[in-house]
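Internal tracking record. Fields below are filled automatically when a chain is submitted to the structure queue. Please do not edit lines marked as system-generated. If the sequence contains nonstandard residues, flag them in the REMARKS field before resubmitting.
Queue: standard
Priority: normal
Entity type: single polypeptide chain
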Amino acid sequence: MSKLGPYEVHPFADAFPLMDGEEFAALVADINKNGLREPILLNHDRTVLIDGRNRYRACDAAMVDPVFDILPERYTEPMILDLIVSKNLARRHLNPGQRAFLALKYEERIAAVNRRGPDRPKSNEIPADLRESRHERESASRAARVVGASGRAVQQAKAVQRDAPDLAEKVRRGEMALDAADRQRKERLKQQPPPDPAPKPTRATLTLLTHDGRKVEYPKPAGKATFNETSGPGISWAAWSWNPVTGCLHGCDYCYARAIAASERAAAAYPAGFTPLFHDERLDAPANTVIPEQYRDDSHKSCGRGDCKICEYRRVFVCSMADLYGRWVPDEWIQKVHEAMLASPQWQYILLTKFPARYVGLELPPNAWVGTSVDEQKRVRIAQDAMAKLDGNVVKWLSLEPLREPLEFDDLSMFDWVVIGAQTETRQPDGIVPAFAPPFEWVARLVAQARAAGCRVHLKPNLVNGRPGMQLPDEYPGDN
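SYSTEM-GENERATED OUTPUT FOLLOWS
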């Protein structure tokens, strides 16, 4: 509320424009000559000036003591509002725009009364939040009727007040017509740039840790963690893959996993790129994954047939996008992954590393196939020495993929299974690594040695019926 002397001015009375210039000077002169002929009206407790702002100011300017009437206590707020309207409209000429803005102020006051209700204490505060309700619609209709404004003009006034408060003030002072203010408002809106699109909801994130302790924000999965079902010839010996750890530091130039993690399409899934990252949110996947009904058979034993889907759908390639046993992997990561495997023994976990010495001394899950990867002759001795030290009760296997050079093993008898594959083309960040098809002789010699040692053999599809295949002999008898 504004104040005049010791009195607060009723907010609705304050909405009417004050006299100024010659009009106010004439009022001062009349009071100075004839005294105050119409008393100033106060509320029942003499604290709020209901009517007579101009007369009070004129008395002050004429140095004449004002005369007051006191409103009876029985006057309610709606009655006071109607009284202010009747006294001011009778003595002031207001254009349609000014009437429309007075209707807005009347609507605010009467709507506040309706929201407050008869039993709630009165407040002279004008609420900022005017919610649409039945009471407020009634308030708007009554305001327009009492003030003598059209419904169209009131809607225009609301729009100008909302979008162009500076123009609204000009209309209230009588300096601008409401129609002109509304047209200018619309022109301003046309010239404004379109609003920015609403921001998309921010997806919740998890904080994961890299091998060296760096924190990485990762999108929180929408559902429970489960295995990924494999498809295509890439992982031809297991139906599932599971990556509680991603990333590797071996730096192999042909690595398919690094190519995937570094690709633009996978950027959101690999926020740390191919830096080793621990996904503890995926540790529940063994417990959450359900074998498709057509491949369930609890009585089925491992049969060793390559086309057996019941066996295949129990096999899980652990860390297809990492080396779980690399030198850089914290012991805690390995321990937690092993605990998850031990807690769900219904699966056949297939492990693979280029650092098999890490297996030695670990509590390996009894239902795991423990493997090592050899792609060059220098890894042969490492593989033979480490795998010979492992308990003979676990299935031990050898991955020769990609076979990039002829390999010579002293002994394959410590292995139960040998897998051989070619090198497929990969698109790495620093360029394309071409495919490489090993000669038939390299593969044949290894298969023969594995057979002699009693190993089962699996030739990857990229050797026998895919790309790049093998360099098959193509010789014909001739003079030489």
